[in-house]
Design brief:
CATH superfamily: MetI-like
Number of domains: 1
CATH topology: MetI-like fold
Radius of gyration: 27 Å
Oligomer: single chain
Number of helices: 13
Number of strands: 2
């Protein structure tokens, strides 16, 4: 029996080419919309990074202070000198400690906000985001006044009888750590809040019905489901904290050198652009490896949750 194909617009055969052309045009439109973002990334990120990579293989003429381009690896081998390696290791250790501190402080805060409802939740989120409305430098100087030798922190601890005499937190590694935790804590709280809010309350009720104590529910249900938010928060805190410059410059002064201060001194004071570029490229490679590792763990956690 012969089957005659319909020429109506609703026919799948006749509508197929039209849909294909429409999808192609839509795809081309989306590609055009992405061009400004791609151009911005290439111009202000990839191009400067490529320039630093070229400089990192060059050398500096100590007499004329002019850069001589070449393919030497001496700049990278110089990173392992104790003069530069100590601040680098100190930056990594401080970044890891600050990230853990932000996680330990931010998780209960995000959990409390996720349990709130309506206007109370909006008010708590607003309180977390309000510090971003002020300048980064102004917030850092605010912490400067708080942890000063005769500041509010000293007054509170002295009134409680916990310390006697000045505590000398300013211009030290702990002072820099306090500044990093205060500054980057909202970047940990917000991703955690998003992950915790998505947890179905029925799962928590089911865990309670099965006899799980609150601590066991937290360890076996809440934390595994919040793993994507934990990893995202750690990325947002650890990556910029490792190369932080403003906070160590203000709260650390000249007594505590961090990676960002070393790079700035090499560029500005020594004028050794090739070595400064090598330091920057080395840090970028390490952070990219850590980012890829954390993102792969995040994808696995998201697949496990889904």
């Amino acid at each position: 029996m012969a089957v005659q194909l319909s020429s109506e617009p609703d026919s799948p055969v006749s509508a197929d080419p039209v849909q294909r052309r429409w999808r192609l045009r839509l795809g081309a439109t989306w590609h055009l919309l992405a061009l400004p973002g791609v151009g911005w990334t290439v111009l202000f990120f990839l191009a400067p990074l490529g320039l630093l990579l070229v400089y990192s293989f060059g050398s500096i003429n100590l007499l004329t202070l002019q850069v001589q381009f070449g393919w030497t690896l001496s700049n990278y081998s110089g990173i392992f000198q104790s003069l530069y390696l100590d601040p680098i290791l100190r930056s990594f250790a401080l970044s890891a400690a600050a990230t853990v501190a932000c996680l330990l402080i931010g998780f209960p805060v995000a959990l409390r906000i996720s349990r709130a409802q309506g206007r109370r939740q909006a008010a708590l989120l607003l309180a977390v985001m309000i510090p971003f409305w002020t300048s980064f430098v102004v917030r850092t100087y605010g912490i400067y006044d708080v942890i000063a030798d005769n500041g509010p922190l000293y007054s509170v601890l002295h009134a409680l009888g916990l310390v006697h005499g000045y505590i000398h937190i300013l211009y030290s590694v702990p002072g820099i750590g306090i500044g990093i935790v205060y500054t980057y804590l909202p970047l940990m709280v917000l991703p955690l809040f998003v992950s915790l809010e998505r947890i179905d309350p029925a799962l928590l009720e089911a865990a309670g019905d099965l006899g799980a104590a609150p601590l066991r529910t937290l360890r076996r249900v809440i934390i595994p489901l919040a793993t994507p938010g934990i990893i995202a928060g750690c990325i947002l805190v650890a990556i910029p904290a490792t190369g932080e410059y403003v906070i160590p410059q203000i709260l650390g002064g000249d007594k505590t050198l961090m990676f960002g201060n070393v790079v700035a001194d090499v560029f500005e004071d020594l004028g050794n652009y090739p070595f400064g570029a090598a330091l920057t490229i080395a840090l970028t490679i390490v952070l990219m490896i850590a980012l890829v590792f954390l993102r792969s763990r995040s994808y696995r956690a998201e697949e496990a949750v889904s």
